[in-house]
Amino acid sequence: MSVHANEAGSLVESSVDAGVLTLTLNSPRDGNALNVAMTEALSNVLEQVNDRRDVHCVLLRSSSRHFCTGGNVKDMQSGSDLMSGGVEEVRDRLLRSLHRITRALNGLDVPSVCAVNGAAVGAGCDLALMCDIRVASTKAVFAESFLRLGLVSGIGGSWFLARIVGYAKALELTLTSEFIDAEAALGIGIVSKLVPQEALDTEARSLAKHIARNPPTALRMAKRLVREAADASLPTTLDMAASMQAILLCGREHKEAVDRFLEQQAAKKRAHV
To answer: Where is the chain membrane-spanning (predicted)?
Structure first.
């Protein structure tokens, strides 16, 4: 097992094991609020992932009872952190700071898995939505709660939400700001799997490691193909698929995978003789 020490500071703990980069939000006193410091700590690691050949999957989780409670309401009241200054200054800070997470997560070449425990609300809900796959504990709750505070999703969550649950449901969740439990989140596709709270880390890590075992070049291409196909025409998708497949068919990973498959099949036959 290869494990590397923390690379992101105390707010975001970082380690690599079996090709899985685990990023742990670690600011329990404020519910892992997405303030400037948390944003920078998380973005600094995420922006390096695509150049790391030791990382085949990212697992995003929390060390505390909540995944992420979004913006800090006390900071909003005092006008500090992300909210300080005039309109132009706040807009520029959102674009340069908070949106780094959005761009980095959406731009990951490798798949991302999110383990959601407790509350994922406001920008915290959006953070979970930016990941490719979400596994949640049965105690998780989700909310696009911005209108409760007279706000909209400033981190781009509406783009992800509509693609995951559809236009009408995205509007319902946004305009009601209602909290939905884990069962409801599973029913509308926000999460892929529910597990007991005590099993969340084990299940999420198992899924991430299963994904990370795939041939790394093919893994990155497979994610990109599905992501691009969501917004592309069929002819464009077919052209992309043909190009990727040709590269992979002529590559080392494919040949090694075929050899392994045939060896495993032969071993199974010998075992039944």
So the answer is: none
81-117 burial, b at 16+ Cβ within 10 Å, e below that, comes to bbbeeeeeeeeebbeebbbbbbebbeebbbbbbbbbb
Strands (E), the chain: 12-17, 20-25, 57-62, 112-116, 119-121, 133-137, 141-143, 180-181, 193-195
Determine the topology of domain 216-271 in CATH: Lyase 2-enoyl-coa Hydratase; Chain  A, domain 2 (1.10.12)
For the entire predicted model, the pTM comes to 0.89
CB 162, CB 126: distance < 8 Å: no
- Which residue bears the tokens 């990109």? 224
Does domain 12-212 correspond to CATH entry 3.90.226.10?
yes
Q: How far apart are CA 239 and CA 245, in angstroms?
A: 10
pLDDT digits (tens, 9 = 90+) for 144-200: 999 998 999 989 999 999 999 999 999 999 999 999 999 999 999 999 999 999 999
Distance of alpha carbon 124 from alpha carbon 199, whole angstroms? 21
Quickly tell me which residue has 């505070």 as its tokens: 149
Q: Which residues of the chain does CATH 3.90.226.10 include?
A: 12-212
Strand order in the sheet with 119-121: 119-121, 141-143, 180-181
**Residues forming CATH 1.10.12 domain(s) in the chain:** 216-271
Nearest to 49 by CA among 130, 107, 89, 123: 107
